[in-house]
Design goal:
The complex is a heterodimer. Chain A is 31% helix and 28% strand. Chain A has 15 helices and 26 strands. In chain A, the strands form six sheets. In chain A, strands 11, 12, 13, 14, 15, 16 and 17 form a seven-stranded mixed β-sheet that branches. In chain A, a hairpin with a 3-residue loop joins strand 1 and strand 2. Chain A starts with a strand and ends with a strand. In chain A, 41% of the residues are buried. Chain B is mainly alpha-helical. Chain B is built from two helices and no strands. Chain B is rod-shaped. The termini of chain B are far apart. The chains are: A alpha+beta, B mainly alpha. Chains A and B meet through helix 4, helix 7 and helix 12 of A and helix 1 of B.
Chain lengths: 499, 63
């Protein structure tokens, strides 16, 4: 029996692997690295290294899977593996067909060592320009950080298994509200300078740098700050460091270019990667204490709640998935409305409901916070030959709710709001935003139709209480299937009118 | 001491943690609102609308 078996679940190790990071290669292309000592869990008589969740949807078809010791370069295992019956090769590639790998954050990324030298130079030049603009135009004390800083100090070059570029800045503020406002102002300035900027949280944003070959590279801009004498650095570094380790800045050389660095780069690297930061480890993972994650999530995150999940769901979904029969709720709402009407589908997802409503003669606006979902809705509407307006609405972001809500409320037409399954997905605060939005856009008349699963977190009386507290009147409460459906969660339907 | 020793205390800590997160999140929500207000106030004043002016004057009295 082989000492390693590979399944859709992961790698089953039946004998110990050497104590070094292990590279996983599919058809000779690096895909992921793990650390057997840290990542293997005991499963009966063997040890199991599970596939990162992000890889699972890709494990269809066959591949030659090899495990290679990263330091020793020894092939520890190699075999042709059939993950499913399909004859296709497993392909983990981006939209342009470029190979991807799993980075230390569990995300699929391109890698710098697949990038030719002129592209690397292009990336480093972009980082240099971004640093200059952050410092001179956005007024931030910005410097190189994370992988780029590590590569610069260790070897003067980019690290092969890294796939993004990172810079950081030390906030001038010591209150979370001011830190958020400073970050947003900087993001705005960079956008005004012509950069493509995506806010990742209240204290970090990503700048997409277009590459000459049509690809793009993400440069993350992370905020560092002192709160009550503790130092924090997005996304999840925390520890003791003296301000003088960071400022005034110094310089380091990366791929032949001189870039701004913290005052003492070694101090920040030691805090970021631990005392062994000088030894290369492609399987390195940040070990964040729970309280730091809670701190970061609590203060900065939330606007992109589960966005990555929904994006991967919509990207992985077959294009035909929106073609299925419309849910009973859509048909029920259609009957309630009667003739053609203005309808806003909040959380449109695949667009199945929105497109069906449009086919029935309604004027439909489909809203979703996931770009991938919005693309799906547009594609489905086009295939069906119906008109559906599509726009972004993020119920985790008050700005999105107020700005779109106000624009729609300004149009003097009655408008119904349709939200299937949204209550199930939303935090209590985001539910409030859903109700705020619904009340705003139906200012000139119209009803709000909600369907949700009845759970301890969403009991009908609790949801109704929230609606009434916002000034809504629940006109009808229905439990399809008489409140008891075999093998299915009980659902509740509400019809709401806002005063 | 672990949570089995004192389930009541563990429950209170969990509730406190939840409340703490809610308070932390207020920073972001307040920043959102400030952004919207800031974006709107200046162009609103530029329109030289008497109602906007009156509304701001009313607000001013409470500051």
């Amino acid at each position: 029996m082989d000492h390693v078996a590979v399944s859709t679940e992961g790698m089953h190790l039946r004998a110990p692997l050497p104590d070094e990071p292990v590279d996983v290669r599919f058809d000779d292309a690096w895909l992921w690295s793990f650390n057997p000592g840290r990542d293997a869990e005991t499963a009966g008589s063997e040890r199991l290294v599970r596939w990162p969740a992000i890889l699972r949807p890709y494990l269809r078809g066959r591949s030659t899977v090899a495990l290679v010791g990263h330091t020793s370069d020894t092939v520890l295992f190699e075999a042709e593996v059939a993950f499913t019956d399909a004859d296709d090769r497993v392909r983990v590639v981006d939209e342009q067909g470029h190979p991807l790998g799993v980075d230390k954050g569990g995300r699929l990324q391109r890698r710098f060592d697949d990038t030719d030298p002129s592209l690397r130079d292009h990336i480093v030049a972009a980082v240099e320009q971004i640093l200059a603009d952050l410092r001179e135009k956005a007024g931030l004390d910005a410097f190189l950080a994370f992988g780029c800083l590590l590569g610069a100090v260790r070897s003067g070059s980019m690290i092969g298994h890294d796939a993004d570029a990172d810079v950081a800045y030390l906030s001038k503020h010591a209150h979370p509200l001011d830190i958020i406002r400073e970050n947003r102002a900087a993001a705005r300035t960079m956008r005004e300078l012509g950069y493509t900027v995506v806010p990742m949280s209240g204290a970090d944003f990503k700048i997409w740098v277009p590459l000459p070959d049509g690809r793009r590279c993400g440069v993350d801009v992370f905020c560092g700050y002192f709160l009550d004498d503790h130092f924090y650095l997005l996304p999840s570094v925390q520890g003791r460091i003296d301000r003088s380790s960071l400022l005034p800045t110094s310089t380091v050389t990366l791929e032949g270019r001189e870039l701004v660095a913290p005052a003492r780069p070694e101090d920040l690297l030691s805090l970021t990667y631990g005392p062994h930061w000088r030894t290369p480890d492609p399987a390195f993972k940040f070990a964040h204490p729970t309280w730091v994650t809670r701190h970061m999530n609590g203060y900065w995150r939330g606007a992109r709640n589960r966005l990555r999940h929904w994006t991967s769901v919509h990207r992985a979904a077959a294009p035909a998935s929106g073609d299925a029969t419309p849910p009973g709720f859509a048909r029920w709402v259609h009957r309630q409305i009667g003739g053609p009407a203005n309808l806003v589908d909040v959380g449109a997802g695949t667009g199945r409901d929105a497109v069906w409503f449009a086919g029935k003669g309604h004027t439909v606006l489909a809203l979703d916070y996931s770009n991938a979902a919005r693309s799906q809705v547009r594609a489905l509407a086009e295939r069906r030959g119906v008109d559906v307006d599509v726009d972004a609405l993020n119920l985790f972001d008050v700005r999105s709710v107020l700005s779109l809500g106000a624009r729609l409320a300004h149009e003097p037409a009655p408008r119904h709001v349709y939200a299937r399954g949204m209550i199930d997905e939303l935090s209590p605060a985001a539910r409030e935003e859903l109700f705020r939005f619904a009340a705003m856009v139906s200012r000139h008349g119209g009803l709000t139709f909600l369907q949700f699963k009845i759970t301890p977190h969403s009991r009908p009386e609790q949801v109704i209480g929230q609606i009434e507290a916002r000034g809504g009147t629940v006109e009808s409460v229905r439990r399809p299937g008489g409140g008891k459906q075999q093998g299915k969660a009980n659902k509740c339907r509400l019809v709401v009118r806002w005063a | 001491m672990n949570s089995e020793d004192n389930p009541e205390l563990a429950k209170r800590v969990k509730a406190l943690e939840q409340e703490m997160q809610e308070v932390r999140q207020l920073n972001r929500r307040l920043a959102d609102v400030l952004d919207v207000v800031t974006e709107l106030l200046v162009p609103a004043m530029d329109r030289d609308d008497a109602r906007v002016r009156a509304a701001l004057e009313r607000l001013d009295k409470f500051v």
